[in-house]
From TrEMBL:
The lineage of its organism: Bacteria, Bacillati, Bacillota, Bacilli, Bacillales. This is Methionine ABC transporter ATP-binding protein. PANTHER family: AMINO ACID IMPORT ATP-BINDING PROTEIN, METHIONINE IMPORT ATP-BINDING PROTEIN METN 2. It comes from Sporosarcina ureae. Residues 2-241 form the ABC transporter domain. Signal peptide: none annotated.
Amino acid sequence: MIQLTNVHKRFQLNRSEIVAVDDVTLAIEEGEIFGVIGYSGAGKSTLIRLLNGLETPTSGSIMIHGQEMTTLKGAGLRNARQKISMIFQHFNLLWSRTVEENIMFPLEIAGVKKSARKQKVKELIDLVGLTGREQAYPSQLSGGQKQRVGIARALANDPEVLLCDEATSALDPETTNAILDLLTDINERLGLTIVLITHEMHVIRKICHRVAVMEAGQVVEAGNVLDVFQSPQADITKRFISQVTDTGDTDAAMAHLQEESPHGKLIKLAFIGERTEQPVLAELIRTFSIDVNIVQGNISTTRDGAYGTLVLQLVGDAAVIEEAIAFLDANEVKTEVLIHD
Ligand SMILES: Nc1ncnc2c1ncn2[C@@H]1O[C@H](COP(=O)(O)OP(=O)(O)OP(=O)(O)O)[C@@H](O)[C@H]1O
């Protein structure tokens, strides 16, 4: 439904050229929540601005609903843009207008009749959970409430795509979760496609179906959130995932264990969903005469299911440890050797 093909965006700055988006090819399906994650300067904002026509690519194609965005002009571009809404990190509300008037604003611009406007605003206020706050001004609202106004305003003209530019980055963790729940609810209820950019893996894990990881203007990895979390390929993806999985104590625990029993082998097991390693581990301990120390374990949930890791230290005869690892592999438990003796 949204297809970017070989998209480049270069900016000329004094005499140097900045490549903000470098040969990006991506397909975003209708009705999914698609996350783009990257550090500052990776090109995320430029990418999202290309989607709503605020920037035009230097080269490449951007098709939205079968329409080539890069060649649209005038009324055609305005119409296409009406189907694509955006919410922002700092909300971008009109401070002299009440909640109700802020949400009404895009309807006024679109020339919707007063009675229809009133009805629509009421529905939207209901949808985002702001009933009772209609007459408040933005300065009287909490950050989460301001973003709810931003979301209601973005939905006023019944868009097909909602772009979220770091929409929760200015909010505390609890409010972030409430806004992410609201976005999930809207996605499910309205079938709206959501494209969000963020530098927080927590946001991706909690609500996205698929994710693209950006670095230096390029998409270095993309896929289903569960798959990417389970087997990240790029180093940068691994770093992002460690934001949400590392306890911080693991390195210290591993170093300590290596000191205590330098001949052990540290391995990491990965598992998904309901499947549990317990029976396999019990059999491992029964069958092989090695010591098994649990260093760290965690389980995380994505919207498509749970995944987890377990770090073990295996101590004993090297050949028996190799057999034990082969046993785990044969039982389809994904293993990764972290430290050899
Ligand atoms: N209008 C512009 N003119 C010149 N350079 C730009 C412009 N917009 C973005 N850039 C540059 O393009 C690169 C990518 O910026 P972009 O804002 O897209 O990254 P980002 O991943 O969104 O980072 P951030 O989260 O900090 O905004 C940066 O080097 C930035 O300085």
